[in-house]
Design a protein that fits this description.
This protein has a single domain, classed as Vaccinia Virus protein VP39 (Rossmann fold, 3-Layer(aba) Sandwich), CATH 3.40.50. It has a seven-stranded mixed β-sheet with strand order 3-2-1-4-5-7-6, sandwiched between helices. It is about 25% helix and about 15% strand. It contains six helices and seven strands. By secondary structure, the protein is an alpha/beta fold. β6 and β7 form a beta hairpin. Bound molecules: S-adenosylmethionine. The site of S-adenosylmethionine has 21 residues, from α3.
Length: about 210
């Protein structure tokens, strides 16, 4: 049987479990203040958000990006650290491939709503990667869920990540987002970095 780290088909075996995590984020006042403002406008759970928050705090100089913004809660959190570039259709999921579970139109939220929530952010409306531009990226939170979109984000962002720049990919090992995990797995097969997966299914890469 393939092991999770040997073959992307292993991702199909990931299951939800009850785990013995500790709520360390409750001790972080700045994070909790922000979290209390965004809890209703993000799909990320506190442990996932806290992982992104910590990686962002340690990021080298450079730009912050989020691909897959939805209502903008995670982007709002990141904008407390640096201005952020936000990429989304703002009309929800634009396509569904054979390894995807979400449907076209899922997670639709208007660009105007997000712009208001994230004043230190700049929206770029359209399917990725059409509105991408050249940048020195210090941190990218990729949360587009589907296989092709994840692949497109990785292909564009990875070469533009600065040394020690951080890529956090949500849903890498999330049962409903198999296509996303497959794209990450296959993309990094010939790269020097190995994605580190945590117990919440996020994959993290620090650029060499
Ligand atoms: C799970 S939601 C993002 C959740 C968000 N990061 C949060 O903090 O709650 C996925 C988002 O990806 C966007 N998306 C998916 N595929 C896309 C694509 N090909 N181009 C642009 N946006 C895309 C959807 O419109 C949706 O807003």
């Amino acid at each position: 049987m393939p092991n999770l780290i040997d073959d992307h088909r292993g991702l199909r075996k990931v299951q939800h479990i009850q785990h013995d995590a500790v709520t360390v984020w409750h001790c972080d006042k700045q994070f909790m203040n922000i979290f209390n403002r965004i809890r209703k406008v993000t799909l990320l759970t506190p442990p996932k958000l806290y992982h992104v928050w910590q990686m962002a705090k340690g990021a080298p100089p450079g730009a912050f990006w989020e691909c897959g913004v939805y209502k903008g809660g995670t982007a709002h959190m990141l904008s407390h650290l640096r201005p952020i570039e936000m990429f989304d259709t703002f009309e929800g999921i634009p396509e569904k491939g054979e390894n995807d579970s979400h449907h076209v139109g899922d997670f639709a939220c208007s660009e105007a709503y997000v712009s208001k929530l994230v004043p230190r952010g700049k929206t770029h409306k359209g399917p990725v990667p059409t509105r991408f531009f050249d940048d020195d990226i210090a941190l990218c939170h990729s949360d587009v869920d589907q296989e092709q979109a994840t692949w497109d984000v990785l292909q564009y962002v990875y070469p533009r990540l600065v040394t020690h720049g951080v890529l956090v990919i949500d849903d890498y090992a999330w049962p409903h987002c198999y296509g996303c995990g497959k794209a990450v797995f296959e993309f990094f097969e010939d790269k020097p970095e190995a994605p580190v997966v945590n117990a919440f299914g996020q994959a993290t890469v620090v650029k060499r």
